Amino acid sequence: MGFKSDIEIAQEAKLLPINDIAASLGIPEDAVENYGRYKAKLDIHALKELPEKGKLILVTAITPTPAGEGKTTTSVGLTDGLRKIGKNAVVALREPSLGPVFGVKGGAAGGGYAQVVPMEDINLHFTGDFHAIGAANNLLAAMLDNHIQQGNSLGIDPKAITWKRAVDMNDRQLRHIVDGLGGKVQGVPREDGFEITVASEIMAVLCLAADLKDLKERLARIIVAYTYDGKPVTAADLKAQGAMAALLKDAIKPNLVQTLEGTPAFIHGGPFANIAHGCNSVTATRTALKLADYVVTEAGFAADLGAEKFVDIKCRMAGLHPSAVVIVATVRALKYHGGVPKAELNNENLEALEKGLPNLLQHVGNVKNVFGLPCVVAINAFPTDTEAELRLVEKRCNELGVNVALSEVWAKGGEGGKALAGEVVKLCEQPNDFSFTYPLDMSIEDKLETICKRIYHADGVALTPNAKKQAQQLTELGFAGMPICMAKTQYSFSDDAGLLGAPSGFTVTVRNLKVAAGAGFIVALTGDIMTMPGLPRVPAAEKIDVDENGKITGLF
């Protein structure tokens, strides 16, 4: 059998009508809003009275490398595996952003025989959620600039505007722009910029809102600028929240699709985890917990980013209590952390593996000792992994009291996830001491220090003079009691992407603090992290095409 690409596997799949998937979960017909034959949105109000019954399982990973880890693939295959061993399970994932799809990373619908489908739709426009979020974001921007143009009765300082426009594409050209040029009737000239839609606060608001009422209240609280005398200006001051909520009334409803094996999949919301909070929507997670006994979800990038924000932001705000954690690793990625170049990762190298293992073990330690959750390490299998390498990983994890399961879901689908599923079910029966990284009543600086020391294992945190001033201002404005959303490189525990493995002896520098008052957290920008990525030298878009029958190729 020749090698098949992800898209070829997905296009050959026989999908079930989405109404059959909904019926398998006992969803009443009047709660299903069809978007074609294979996609639907669910009316959360029609399901409001159902009690939550499911156990929540988080899939996270080691620090990412160019060798790949396979978190989404593992999440999908684990859920299929749970169904194979007779459990009522669903998966709840984020929607992919068009930026990475056309950029360097490619699609985000799983891989091999552990995918969610229809894969092309999910990776492209899907049900239009991201377009709605971008429209709401840009409506607010337009109303803000219009207010200044029409006389500026609120006294907004054009040099103190914090709200940016958004587009769901990697477009470095739009990071820093000047607009409003061309004379009086064309607007007020000012410096401006764009963020990628997944970094917009509207995305975070949509993903953290409990329902439409909560959504509107959060939108109203968004701070867009400051007045000449330093007072915050909100979306409510501009009377924008009602129109924004109207644009988002369908986008807040969770999307239902399926895996290649017909397992129900909720795919909704998609904040990045290096610059935002990296989790799918609360509405999707809560709906899934009402309909299934086991809900598998993931948080973006490694456990120092996605899992920390899942715990300290999403679980804290939504009152969620996870039952178990899966940490995904590959032998290849661990060797990369041990100093092996990408081209040589196929060769057995126990010495490099031993050097790279502290990265995995540090993530394991954080999950067990900081978050108080039981975990299992899932080794995403590659044909080049040797018996000796797999034994070494297992031995080191066992020394920390953590089991290892080989995950063969890429090649075998749910059948290859049964061993991992069995481990997860066992973990879910264990009592746990779930806890947060820090209490909310700490000062902003103390929270930053605690995250850096407890999660990143840094010596401490250093705030630039600008960040210190911002921390003081945010405290004076009454925002000090919010959780922190760290914007940090995903490639290292530190704020330096070049420090692989489990580095020590470093300090994290916070250069900028801003409040996301609608989302309900403070964003701390470290290193050279940006909220608008650029395309690589050879974008994935160059390989994507569509034929005269509408069949897409090259999308992974």
Can you tell me about this structure?
By secondary structure, the chain is an alpha/beta fold. The protein is about 35% helix and about 20% strand. It has 18 helices and 25 strands. Helix 14 links the parallel strand 18 and strand 19. Helix 6 packs across helix 7, helix 6 packs antiparallel against helix 9 and helix 13 runs parallel beside helix 14. The two termini are about 20 Å apart.
Helix/strand layout:
Elements: H1 6-12, H2 18-24, E1 32-34, E2 40-42, E3 55-61, H3 71-84, E4 89-93, H4 98-102, E5 110-111, E6 114-117, H5 119-123, H6 129-149, E7 156-161, E8 165-167, E9 177-179, E10 190-192, E11 194-196, H7 201-208, H8 212-221, E12 223-227, E13 232-234, H9 241-248, E14 255-259, E15 264-267, H10 282-291, E16 294-298, H11 303-318, E17 324-329, H12 331-337, H13 350-370, E18 375-380, H14 387-399, E19 404-407, H15 409-412, H16 418-428, H17 444-454, E20 460-463, H18 465-476, E21 484-487, E22 507-516, E23 521-526, E24 545-546, E25 552-553
Parallel strand pairs: 3-16, 3-17, 4-15, 4-16, 8-11, 17-18, 18-19, 20-22, 21-23
Antiparallel strand pairs: 1-2, 2-14, 5-6, 6-14, 7-12, 9-10, 12-13, 14-15, 22-23, 24-25
List keywords for this structure.
556 residues, alpha/beta, 12-stranded mixed β-sheet, 4-stranded mixed β-sheet
